[in-house]
Specification:
alpha+beta, acetylation (chains A, B, C, D), globular, homotetramer, 3-stranded antiparallel β-sheet, EC 3.5.1.2 (chains A, B, C, D), Beta-lactam/transpept-like (chains A, B, C, D), Beta-lactamase, glutaminase activity (chains A, B, C, D), Glutaminase (chains A, B, C, D)
Chain lengths: 309, 309, 309, 309
Amino acid sequence: MPALDKVLNDIADTMAKETRRGKVADYIPQLAKVDPARFGIAVVTNDGETFTAGDADEPFSIQSISKVFTLTMALGLVGDSLWKRVGREPSGNPFNSIVQLEREQGVPRNPFINAGALVVTDVVLSQHQPREALGQILHFLRFLAGDESIVVDRAVARSETETGFRNIALANYMKAFGNLEHDPDKTLGVYFHQCAVAMSCRQLAMAGRFLAADGRNPETGGRVVSSQRARRINALMLTCGHYDGSGDFAFHVGIPGKSGVGGGILAVVPGKASIAVWSPGLNQVGNSQLGAIALERLARTMGWSVFGP
Amino acid sequence: MPALDKVLNDIADTMAKETRRGKVADYIPQLAKVDPARFGIAVVTNDGETFTAGDADEPFSIQSISKVFTLTMALGLVGDSLWKRVGREPSGNPFNSIVQLEREQGVPRNPFINAGALVVTDVVLSQHQPREALGQILHFLRFLAGDESIVVDRAVARSETETGFRNIALANYMKAFGNLEHDPDKTLGVYFHQCAVAMSCRQLAMAGRFLAADGRNPETGGRVVSSQRARRINALMLTCGHYDGSGDFAFHVGIPGKSGVGGGILAVVPGKASIAVWSPGLNQVGNSQLGAIALERLARTMGWSVFGP
Amino acid sequence: MPALDKVLNDIADTMAKETRRGKVADYIPQLAKVDPARFGIAVVTNDGETFTAGDADEPFSIQSISKVFTLTMALGLVGDSLWKRVGREPSGNPFNSIVQLEREQGVPRNPFINAGALVVTDVVLSQHQPREALGQILHFLRFLAGDESIVVDRAVARSETETGFRNIALANYMKAFGNLEHDPDKTLGVYFHQCAVAMSCRQLAMAGRFLAADGRNPETGGRVVSSQRARRINALMLTCGHYDGSGDFAFHVGIPGKSGVGGGILAVVPGKASIAVWSPGLNQVGNSQLGAIALERLARTMGWSVFGP
Amino acid sequence: MPALDKVLNDIADTMAKETRRGKVADYIPQLAKVDPARFGIAVVTNDGETFTAGDADEPFSIQSISKVFTLTMALGLVGDSLWKRVGREPSGNPFNSIVQLEREQGVPRNPFINAGALVVTDVVLSQHQPREALGQILHFLRFLAGDESIVVDRAVARSETETGFRNIALANYMKAFGNLEHDPDKTLGVYFHQCAVAMSCRQLAMAGRFLAADGRNPETGGRVVSSQRARRINALMLTCGHYDGSGDFAFHVGIPGKSGVGGGILAVVPGKASIAVWSPGLNQVGNSQLGAIALERLARTMGWSVFGP
């Protein structure tokens, strides 16, 4: 097996020279300010070693990657009854998902499209006030990453709140179908803030360890979720983690992953490692362009794939 | 690890008692005649052992499972240029796929929906006459399974040809967009016959061995396809192999699989085993109802999952 | 020509006995309280006579019928530039229109579906505050009807505001595409109130006179809109005035009309008469069931149709 | 009222100078050969006068205009039971209609989209052989136009048969839903030939007289269809006669009309006149570009509109 530190440095070097870097998300004004030249990557192996390259300690907006963690929390709260309110199928929709919301009566296709994540947040909100729910999400992220310094980027949160008309539409649309328990504004408030959490590649890879370790914290051996639940979350990441590019990511990279429009991707090699990569430019379906290429290269070099022996 | 023969027998016994068996496909008159009480299962491990239970030697119509093998052939013929004509994303469509054909200008979402498989067959047809192309498909299946007795069920083929209006529509629709090279009737002729191939669970599990063995025939060590190609076909099976139930199958069973409306499912445990199961009754999205349940039970009992260590 | 008073009384008598009266709209709680047994009809001819039968002086919630009047106002404000923001085609959608909003980038198909009417209201709002804009709408309705007693039903307006999640979704969705100038809450505020205007059949028929009289107030001869504009509004009512039942209404009744979920329909016989009918029960596509039947009978008896000599 | 001969000559002169003439249909190779500079117009008034200008005696392919006449025949054969198999609503679909066929289980939205016209032709075919059915269609057209010289353009018919994959798809798709009685190839054979009928503006305007004269042949006074049926066919032309440009045609021209991709439009002024116009270039939604403009000008000049007095 090649030495991970060398592999990561090679990848970071190659990515630094890449000129086709995709397009930084501009629909959230605050995200549009991020420098497209940034690139970071971090790998935390199940035996506890951490390898990084590039801007691996620079915090970025995790955006939709937060959905993996709120899903984990919601399953902890209500178990499989969550699936009455959210599906488990890829959306298969190049546009976005409001079409299917209409056709499927307000039940989002999966927890990783925006509509589905709003339902998940609605569950996490449960009886709490938005501020407390957000506190619990932060608490969970800090616990998983073993890092108390993780915070919400208030400027990003404000920017999302002011310009998130599409998400406001989705939330109200589901409310019309009775698939949102709380006042849409409350659920949206928590959602906009969870997306605005800032984490570095190192922190994110640490937070993802339980998915690589069949549900346990590999450091302490403590169980975060059951083995079955960890596997199922991985399955959802593989089939639905990259919107309408999920099939392509599975085809090229071959491991579960979840992307965010901040340019981050969390990826999981079951039994081996948790990976986070960050490059702000996005491809046409809204996933980090260089992030996916870097992961494909890393997986191929290391022989990591869930589809081979 | 539990003994496979005992596990399979337990599963077959449980399935025999199951009363909710789904609904046998009736849109092809010949398929509607199959006894819903049948159940068979076969596992071929990478170290060459075969285990079976129930009606594992009874041939059934493989239908869409044939798409895995014609895809393998087409990739052998034209390589990655195939992907200009077919996508690699789940269709995410509860109805069927003609909607997306229209929206996406005649390019099917993936090679495992009917439209995509027709394009694949159009490639396999290449310069040949339909009869020769069909001969090559049979030849490939017999080679993979190591069994010269595999044949087309002519009654089923005739039944499909006479009632396959929807597939005729799909083929002509793609022809209108220029995404079919041959006369639609020719491509359809081969397609209807490849779907009408009859195989037993044992034969099917044998034919799938190269996908469990990273592209090699585990018996001879001979390479069927490259390691990368085998992994990619597995990835496509996982994300697209069960129509609009693919996410659910990944979630519950956790291994790549391809179903057919004849009630069969071919499933692959990379590095470990090739599996075929058969139960004619289908669930609401058109996949074998007991087949999926049996595979979920088998995978859980054996600890087989691509999403865990 | 039969005597109108007798014709209307016959129709009202027949409708009183009708047992299949449709279903009163229940998604706005306040509307659900209306007695389904009510029926009223009023005809104002171009030579100034008024005929009524049944509950013709009972105010009801005009709902979407208000869209005809705000469209007239918006065209007065911005002329044909309105059509950059709204289409003029039937939506042809049995579900509702958010699907097409997505496909057509936030431009509603016509001004009579909810999304289109929201854009129209956004134009009427122009530089004003919601309260003033609503005042102008009321002023215009009172002027057209020659009746200062027309008011907003505050209980209905409040009920709509509290439960109008679907409209909130539509407004925010269009805002995301840049097709709403104002804060969605402001536009929605005016919209919910315009829909909650209460008018009787008599008042409504009076307000519609200018459409029957080629743009003039037939009483005073004063021009309300140009002849061309009146004809075009009639054309839009004919092709789009009854949602996905517009074709059927044109087929059976044969004159332009606009329905509202309060159970009212405003219909126009160009050159002859303005008609309003009210029966709270709705058919499957959301139009007054007995209202349409009454209009069909009236039109046939009187020989009124735009499709014959 | 202006003199019609002068009005038509003015229009023809203006159209001759127009440089933006749209795009001649090229998906049927034979149609692509037509000279885009051609323009003809003919008006037959209810009192029996005929006025023409330009290439009014040049035969062109009537294409979808034939649907008006086969609809009239089918209603004569099976009456209102036709509406169990075809709807009466605008399709509202910018792409084409196969999407709605899927959603609405093989029942086309109206008789003027291709799918609906195929069902209508399937009815006309009834117990006959294709050749006889086509003979009856020709017979009916000759009778209406009072002109025995009307024939099918065999080259166009052959061209359509060889390249009509989309129509083949539609027919087979409906057959799959059980909404085609005959072998799709037979229905398609008649359909391709009815579309290939060649008629001049003069012949077409003559053939449309019964729709302008409330169902009668204005020359003989003989009844072709009932007054109600004539009005209903006009209503369908107005709401559905120009595909997804029907609303716009009603808005700008204000009278019922049916277009064909050969560049012809048949239009009806109830009680006054039957009009045919021809200019081969099509606009973006597939209707004759100059044809619609010429009709708008003619209607405005003459004060013809169903939406005014």
